[in-house]
Amino acid sequence: MSARSVLILAAAAALPLTAAELPQGVRFDRNGSFRVGDAEFYIQNYSPSWTPAANGSWKELKTKLDKSGLSLSAVMRVGTQSAAVTEAVTPTGENAFRLKFDAKFAEKATVNALHGVFVIPAGEMTVTVDGKPVVLPAEYREMTIYGNSKAKELRFTAAGGAGITVSGDPLKLTIQDNRKFGNETFALRFGATPNAGQMTEASLTLDFKIDPVRTRKVDLAPAANAGFADEVAYDGKGGWTDQGPDNDLRMIRPGTVEVDSLAFDIIDPAKNGGRGALVLSGKNRKFTGSAASLALPENEAGAVNLLHASAWTPKAGEPLGSIVAEYADGSSERIPVRARTDCGNWWNPSAGGNAVVGWSAENPESLVGLYASSFALKKTGPVSLRFEAASPDAVWMIAAVTLSDRPVRFLAVSDKPLEIKANYQWKPLNYKRVIRKGSALDFSFLADAPAGKYGFIRPTAAGTLTFEKAPGKRIRLYGPNLCFTASYLTKEAVDQLADYFVYCGYNTVRIHHHDTLLLDPKAPDTLTLSAEQLDKLDYLFFRMKEKGLYITTDLYTNRTFKPGDNIPECDFYDQRQMKMLIPVSRAAMASWKEFAKRWMTHRNPYTGLTWAEDPALYCINLINEETLTNNWSRTPSSVKLYEEAFRKYCAEKKLPGSSASNGNPVFRRFLHELQEAVLAEQIRFVKDELKMKSLVTSLNYISDIPLTLLRRRFDVVDNHSYFDHPGFPEKQWSLPYSYGQASAISRMAVVPRGMMASRLPGKPFLVTEFNYCNPNIYRAEGGPLIGGYAALQDWDALYRFAWSHGSGSIYKVGGAYGFDAANDPMAQLSDRIAIAMFLRGDVEAAKVTYAYTVPQDCFEQNLIAGFPNLFTNLGLIAAIGSVPQGDREIPPGVIELSPADSTKPALLKDAKTAALWEQANKEKLAVSATGQLRLDGRANSFTVTTPRTESVTLKSGSLAAGTLRIRNASCFQTVAAISLDGKALAESDSVLVVQLTNLSNTGILFGNESKRLVKKTGALPLLILKGSATVELASAKPYRVTALDCDGTPYGTVEGSFSNGVYSFKADTTLFPGGVMAYHLTR
Length: 1083
Hints:
alpha+beta, 9-stranded antiparallel beta sheet, 13 helices, globular
């Protein structure tokens, strides 16, 4: 049992650095950062390579706390340089203090950015700047939300209700939306002086004022009507929910429960006639009354706060009850209490919009809890409250009431670390990375070996993939990435891996992050290939080809120049520089060509063909993620090169001088023209000199509008996208890692929706990197989302990133974490779902494509950011993409939308599509025009309904697709049914049912229960989250249900029932020791 701690500044708080002079509600870390509610403040710098660093990375830290406040000295690293820093925090009055930061560098340093920053969770809210409101958006729109270098004062409210005022002269304020980078936060930045460029010293002075919430606890005793304990189940007398001694709340103790800035008083039933709570039951329950009143002490409250819960909770958003606030003048107001938004179920508590888990414990039946919720009043000073039940079947249990002067936005979680271990909720999973041949998990029936048997893969005029020697055949591709040493294995390991990939249903693999390891480490340059490593790569290619897997790879990923490469513009050798140098360095271009030539013209002894001649190498990427807007400024030397080149560009074109920055449209056109010239030469070299017939692509990162004008040069378009990509609060690619822990469904399938507009109608579309990253708690949604929408968009290839980042996890089964699927059966089973929907083609492609028309003068029109969200929402309804203005090569029937019209459903001629698009934009409910995909962002549910494959993803409760129906789902999960014999589901004699909840390593350590910060990744054994649901399938005949081990081996049979054309059985991930994720239904 645990109660969440209020944020206080006292000796007993989690961090002891406190002083009476400093405001309550502020917690200081010894490194000089501090928190107020969910707002964290720290000093942050970005190195010339845009690597961030903050207080947590400072070295030689010396901290002192005395009556004058907090003072410290430390060493701050900025890339390869360092500065001596001091920070002083001094109280300046009641609930106020000043922070002064100074930095002195040993020598002149280049700093891309230096600022103080408040980081707060992303979501719709309003801040004020110099008294004027600034709305921060609920959904991502653009990276920079607001900028004002002359601002004087910023005000906002943190979780817990504390008002925060930051003032400076000036503030140099920038508000950034970090969702651009997959991080669910806003950054409120206050620039130092200077805040960027070359500097020897810098300083920052800010004043802070904290306005704490004022509260008053209310005695619930006069209104309490039930005890927390219930001795006899369902006797109609209560207490609690009348469910008996194994399922009540007897473990709660009298006293104070603190939730953020609020304190709730739990009364002692023993001193109140056995009554400790106010329990209201609907008309169909009747064991308590349905309404009650509570007189209030004199107050000036502007909000009512409850510690409460519900049972037999209605669907999200439906009425649970009402609070009627009555005032001395006879007036009143009614405040609705919405199910699962303002109050959740007491079993397996999970936070809602205005309901944070404020207290939790375990009873014999389940994890149980109470929620804290805050309700704003239109007037102040109510004299009484009346509580009324609204749902006929629900029970509303109120454990405490507290008044406050304002409504409170709660912190999501406490600061208590959370370690996942085997318990009643998490059970060990038996995973051996073996697939039993012929089992229901063996998807080798999809194989068509060897790769290249029909000649080279070619694009069609319609923008799909076919074969050189079989132009009537359509091919889609699905597979994983192999990274670093995962591509350099023993022959035995390669043989096993190729077989396993076929069992998984893969028909392609991407060789990635491989080029450095292909080199001879003893050579003075980065052009000399290692014969031993090349042989390993040759054999990998050979075996994959033999088993029917097509290959794609990159001609550059991470090769770092050496002095022997003779690149004049390369002035250091500890960072990769190809991406920023190749547009401005002939030597870098020559190096790129020579490496490509040596590799592609090498004859593979196992295939007898050069890499360039082999049709199994169906596609090459020129340079991985080389988009110049993300690479030109990564080093001080590259900044100088581009600034000088830009000055010459402006002079030659007789343009006025302007800044070299991504926000400058003139500079963006300059980068665009540079990149266009580079791509033209690379494509010419590959096709004309190397004579390669493989498809060519590049620029496989981000979806900014102008990239459409460049991507038209390619044979195919490629892009990358991740949901909940890790952040690095302290050091790049090092623990701790941060995650948003949002659901992609609630974000309207932002992955893959965010990539949809980057597709060019008439060109095939590949996604060579995607992932719903582990340990995101909703990643069970990933398979249906990527598979369903990729098929709707009629894309051509999908690649999970990654199978493995090293040989170690291929040679040995280990824990599952991060990007890799090799030891993650949940990722592998998600792929089975996506493969059925996309690769096999079970989900129907949209019949109509809408294209955003990109003007040739998009830079002059300042159309240089990403495509509008409202336009990409159309991709949930129909196929979308983008086309250069005046492009005559687009397929017939594509409907072009101008930038001005691209967000206006009413302008579409097709009334049905227009209505569906409008519904998606306004209600977060997206139903595809085919009728097969239905996404409800508010309910956090997604269904796919096709003749051969169906899936249901839901938070809990019941939901139907078509043939497949799910009832009484206990937690967030995906259940999918896949016909294995090609028949329609209702007629199939062999159906694979997959149930995905969540997996975890044993011992993974989160910073708190939100699971947004990972401090330790854990290890074996894998644990599966307990989850159950009743699975129903419409069918003319009953099934025999067999539960499967992760390798496809039968555990045993599962009892089911057949009635009125519906077969049902209960799926439970802990039904058999070792865990169950799949079932085989036969007859």
